[in-house]
Amino acid sequence: MLKTFPKGGVHPPENKLSAGQKIESLAIPKQVSIPISQHIGAPAKPLVKKGDVVKTGQVIAESGGFVSANIHSSVSGKVAKVDAIMDASGYKRPAVIIDVEGDEWIETIDRSADLKKDFNLEAQDIVKKVLEAGIVGMGGATFPSHVKLSIPPGKKADVLILNGVECEPYLTSDDQLMLEKPEEILVGTQILMKALGVNRAIIGIENNKPDSIKIMTDLAKSYQGIEIQPLKVQYPQGGEKQLIKAVINREVPSGGLPIDVGAVVHNVGTTFAVYEAIQKNKPLIERVVTVTGKSVSKPCNLMVRVGTPVSDLIEFAGGLPADTGKVINGGPMMGKALNTVEIPVTKGTSGILIMNEKEASRREVQNCIRCAKCVSVCPMGLSPYLIQQLSEKAMWDEVESEKATDCIECGSCMYTCPSDRPLLDYIRLGKSTVMSIIRARQQK
Amino acid sequence: MSKLLSVSPSPHVAGNYSVKKIMYGVIIAMLPALFVSIYYFGLGAIKVTLIAVLSAIFFEWLIQKLFLKGKSTIADGSAIITGMLLAFNVPSNLPCWIIIVGSFVAIAVGKMTFGGLGNNPFNPALVGRVFLLISFPVDMTRWPIPEPLKFSLTDATTGATPLAILKEGVKNGTPVDQLMSKMPDYMDYFIGQMGGSLGEVSAIALIIGGIYMLMRKIITWHIPVSMIGAIALFTGILWLVDPTQYADPLFHLLTGGVLLGAIFMATDMVTSPMTPAGQLVFGLGIGIITVVIRVFGAYPEGVSFAILIMNAVVPLLNKAFKPKRFGEEVNNG
Lengths: 444, 333
Ligand code: SF4
Ligand code: SF4
Description:
The structure holds two protein chains of two kinds. Chain A is α/β, with parallel strands linked by helices. Chain A is 29% helix and 20% strand. Chain A has helices at residues 123-132, 145-149, 173-180, 182-196, 210-220, 240-248, 268-279, 310-316, 357-360, 373-377, 384-392, 396-401, 412-416, 423-443; strands at residues 23-25, 31-35, 45-46, 53-54, 59-62, 71-72, 77-86, 92-100, 159-164, 201-206, 226-231, 263-267, 286-292, 300-305, 324-329, 336-338, 351-356. In chain A, a hairpin with a 7-residue loop joins strand 13 (286-292) and strand 14 (300-305). In chain A, helix 1 crosses helix 4 (182-196). Chain B has a two-stranded antiparallel ribbon with strand order 1-2. By secondary structure, chain B is mainly α. Bound molecules: iron/sulfur cluster (2 copies). The site of one iron/sulfur cluster (SF4) has 15 residues of chain A, from helix 13 and helix 14.
């Protein structure tokens, strides 16, 4: 029996249309817009102004606090302006807009494709370089990686878990990266192990990626302390808590963090970025993005410079289909619907999913028939039907005691509900309201 | 690119599930039992079922139109289920107008007064059935004798149900084994050759329906198993204590609508608990109450009352048996 997490979960149709498509480099656009807030935490502080000439890889905005990240130019050229633009959040936020001229990289970056295995850096130097390279969680959460590598006093990590699960339907960027850059990921894993002071790492990969599992398993034999753990396909296995439970059977306490059970989780894409930062001196300026959808003529995996307009990616994949109803930044379960494709790719853009009009419309909401399906699929053991009703009635005390704050917003409940109830919409409302109530209480 | 994109929060996909699919699944699961009752009770079974279903749909439509407004819900299939379950719970020779009254009570009082599907605390068909049992005790307990493939509407000969014979006999002091010799044997019960409500007689047909619903994940095993288990255990203990006073467990399980109740009525998702633990307790409660009514109470059978009583306890069970949260009690060895 393959391992997985024991509580709840769903198995939506996988639709990995772009599986096996080689990563192609997308042409550098004429202009890039690089948001200064591509991560969770404080926005970075711009260091450039209109008219400045920048090189590829140069820092253009510096980290604005401990939980923040540096931003680098992904192209060479001239800064056109620093201005608010629409980004994936749907809001206008500051970004550095650069007119591209050539592609001149700063000299310290090693652009060769050679695999470089050896490194000799101390833990704190690794963390420092990760910070400098502006690396954030690339699975979509965009939490600054150096923060996760800085173990709080009194805690101790004993295992590193890598997320190669890619449990969202459609997305294939991590899968393809594991196929094409397996050794780089393994070296990156060793670097992360060194940084954390652990001698064990486990890479969890779902069983619907047999080629990745095979390649990684074969290669991992020559890397000490790294195991590959195939997992049964089940959503949301990429959730940190679910992944830890599936791989090492430890349960992160409610309200706690992975480090509370001695684990640190990173995404395989992030690990590749760490490899590049440490071994090649290359900051995070490009990433793999899956462009996919049932009506898309050429579903693909693209290596894209940060700041490239999403519309360029769609153009490459054959253009926006006529029946397009929705464009999603990320996967269908947790991604964010975009109201325009004229937004830039950022560090957290794992995929662009185009849904046709029929797929895009929600079905009509019916009464809750108390079928308990939402309860049985909730990986956090909550009662979604109840939290929904309580939030709708603004009964926040009850919402709090039902632990809406534990919700990981995976959407499994809503996916399963036969009455198509807007469960997660209300649970989100309940969760954020309760969180602000709790914050207010703590401040008193 | 001027195309207007639709924007909504995640998730952006929904599974291939719907209320309709669930309801029609239940209807399909009831068909074997319906066929068996048509086989044994002939046109009477068809007539009762049709009238019950049609009047249930009609009343739901009417009440929705007059009072609740909004879109009509009759297409979701739940009114058909209520109608069929009501028919399954009455004798096949019940006069038409009584059935219509039953349907009305089931839909109007049992379901629509609470706001329609999903809001009703009690199983609507049982509300209708119990109302009829109390209002028309004579008509509701005149059971036609099963006569295979005799399709006529002339009044069939009637007789008592096995449970009624048992209750009456024990009251008069006749030992159970003597009573048993007058009854159909267990194979007949299993297939459905006995007096009784039209949908309750055939164990095998009900079990087939139950397996179908389990396979389609419409129900889970918890309620039927705990309810049947409780009845078997409780009647088994009584039988071991005094076999001349009490019938054996198999007799209890195969008669008086235990299987119909366990598979189709106690499992009604609207009126049963949300978690497996709650469902186990719910089934246990129904089983125990059923036996108490049968053995010590005034009615020969007790499934309907037991389910309704436990329906009332569901909100409490939902409070008492919450799902276990992830990371609530952590034991990481
Ligand atoms: S309540 Fe939250 S954690 Fe549970 S299934 Fe719904 S979205 Fe996922
Ligand atoms: S899945 Fe939908 S219908 Fe079923 S209990 Fe949950 S909210 Fe109600």
